[in-house]
UniProtKB/TrEMBL annotation, chain A:
Keywords: Centromere, Chromosome, Nucleus. InterPro entries: CENP-L (IPR025204). Belongs to the CENP-L/IML3 family. Its main location: nucleus. The keyword Nucleus applies. It comes from the Eukaryota. One of its GO terms (cellular component) is nucleus. The gene is cenpl. This is Centromere protein L.
TrEMBL record, chain B:
Belongs to the CENP-N/CHL4 family. It comes from Echeneis naucrates (Live sharksucker). The keyword Nucleus applies. It holds the Pfam family CENP-N. Keywords: Centromere, Chromosome, Nucleus. It is found in: Chromosome, Centromere; Nucleus. One of its GO terms (cellular component) is chromosome, centromeric region. Signal peptide: none annotated. Coiled coil: none annotated. This is Centromere protein N.
Amino acid sequence: RSCLGLTPALTARRLSKSRKAPKSHYITVRQRQPLLMFFSHEKVNPEHLALLLKSEWKLSYVTPLYQFRHTQLKSYSRQLSAFIAAEKQQGFAVEVDGSQSNFRVSFSVVQGMTETEDDAETVLIQVRAGFLRPISEAQRSVWSGWLTCVNGNSDYLCSLPKDFICLPLFGSSGSEVLTTLVQSWFQKMFDCCFGPLEMNNTCLQWLAALWTNCHPESSIQHLKMIWTLPVVPPLQITYTVNPKDAWKLWSSVRKDPCEENKEEEGVSIDIEDVMRFMQGLKSHFYRHFRLDLSAGCLKQVSTALGSATFSGRVKISNSQYILSTLTLLTECALFKMPV
Amino acid sequence: MDESIKRTMQRLVRRIPNQLLKPTLDKWGRLTAAQKQSLDFTQPKWALTERLLALCEENEWTAKHIIELEMIYVIDNPNQGMWYAFQLMDPEDDAASVELAQFKEQFKSHLRELVKHVSVKIKKHTDEAVWIRIAWGDGFTRPNHLKPTYVVHHLQTPYVFVSSLTSKQKPLLSQALVLSTRYNVIKDANLSGRKLTAIRDLLMRQYQQVFPTKFPSPLTEKNETVSNPCIEKEQSGAAANRLQMACEAFGDGELPQLQSAVYKLETKFKDPTNKTMTEQEEPFKCVIKFASTNLLESLKQCATSGIASTPVTPLLSSIPLKGRNYFVITDNGPGPTTQMHTSQK
């Protein structure tokens, strides 16, 4: 069953050439801007938020879920617990500190992690393990994961048939075996498929620029980028820029802000700005080492606000910018999804 | 048996890989033929350790014996841990005539003057290197044999290589070294790596260097169908040229294995397309770290493959040329200049 057949919005599924500058969203407290007050992210459960910020997440994309209901989470919790138990009985190596542990799954909704009306609410899944029954809340969490959609392309979302829920970005943290089990349960239940979300050059460069753009409000401490060059043995180059200088370079490559109409939309950032920023960094490097970084592959970007790797591992360290980061990642996931 | 001896022995045996255990023990020569026979080297490590501890008790080995064994192992396997190079400067007139016996005695007595509890063991290796093992204590504690500092010095050269030295111990060691080698100053040589042999070879220029002379092209022409002989010829000429320049910059044959090089750049940002940044007075601050399992080989390949433009920039060729892998780069010349002048602090 192709859930994407004849969707007019397919052409819209590409990385934006321009996006809004990350505004700090104080998502755990009341929005400061009255305009946005009625407009989602009123309040995210601080516990959920802390969990999202605590771990590094391995990302995947997920195709739209067929007949997924946010009202059925209790039942899903039971079913997934049972599924894991059954797989374990069949000898699936679900070993977490001794083989005798029981697993309990809980699904919950993370209210407020959305930007538009079309975004489906984020779903958080936690797996706890313990030796005794019943497993209490306090028992050790051995795996967590979430499915989200922040600022998903509305043309695309609206073009989906009614029975599909699109939560294209999946993050997981914990035992790989459990990740595989959770994914195969989703595949069976909701007829979807998962795939690794690699973060290409463009995506990592966007993150570098978006984070640097936040510097005046929230210090990035450093802008660190890691490239590898295809020689034998491989050469790894770590380029760490002083935060102030990164910001200076960033502001110098931005379009003249006066030209822009500053509506409630906020300041927008263009892919050209990002490219000029990276070009500036590369040319400064070239001037010293006569070595072309474009010949290599950007593997990692990190600042105090977060880090992301080529292999699709992401850590978001600052709650204020979580939504803009997730917007970009949602876009990447939609882009990566097979048609 | 003393608990600390037991622990030192345990740690040491754990450190030595299984296949090296037998030759190291043989070289040490403290086991009787019968005891040697009783050791089964196919056994797992923990069982061997137990057996050696029993022998330790039986033979009444002291800390001295264990240190001997440790030094044999470390001297034979010097490419472990992180080594830092130091350079002695400003020699006294008699610096060139310092002999091993004199150095040994002087070093020990100077260090003991500075630190109350210290255990120093000095051993000369076949390649003229003097190996010094220092276990540090202080006014109240006995020397800690679990965290010894190793120092390697080639007499009559200004180079000293040190591993596992804390910042607290550094001035003490520096003073003892300066006094016993008859130099006046010791400074950081800005070179470090995991392979002692590599950083020694770099500093002492013990690797195959290539000098800028014309030499026959190493590229052998293959008998492929040549689409355009002129282009082919020009390209192979350029490739040979790149290879020559890469060899001149980094050397030929097997290159000393360095793991990293770090450049702290505090230079002006100059880019004709970016007026705002170019007009900035302040330098653009960043740190660049190159890392590889064999850095010089990787850099050389960058130059031969064309990823790095040739001739190789002095910043990169300074690694082998100056025997350094840590640099602070600042702008030298005042005012705008078309060429980049850099100074290396």
